[in-house]
Prior knowledge:
Blueprint: H1 2-14, H2 19-26, H3 30-37, H4 46-56, H5 60-63, H6 87-93
Amino acid sequence: MDEFAERVKRLREHQGLTRRELAHRSGLHEQHLLKIEQGLRRRLEADTIIRLAKTLGVTTDYLLGMTDVNPTTTAGHAGAEGVRDPEALDAATAAKPKTKRTTRKASVA
């Protein structure tokens, strides 16, 4: 999960988000996100991983370290082979315009 923590933190910082902003946009508590980024959360709910991936604009596979190719950044940046992390992520997404994301809170039945 250390790789997960590192990727979340790197993506958050790259997008210029504070921990509080990312927590708010993804519907998580700021303390929970802090523990995730510090690698103190060894087991995460699937919903948490999905929320972070959607908010950060990446796939869950990418966050989990199952692939170094981030398909959400390939369009118009790196061709068919995709973007390789970590060094290429900064260069490939630098030209990507930042947009305000809206989030919906999941309802619990």
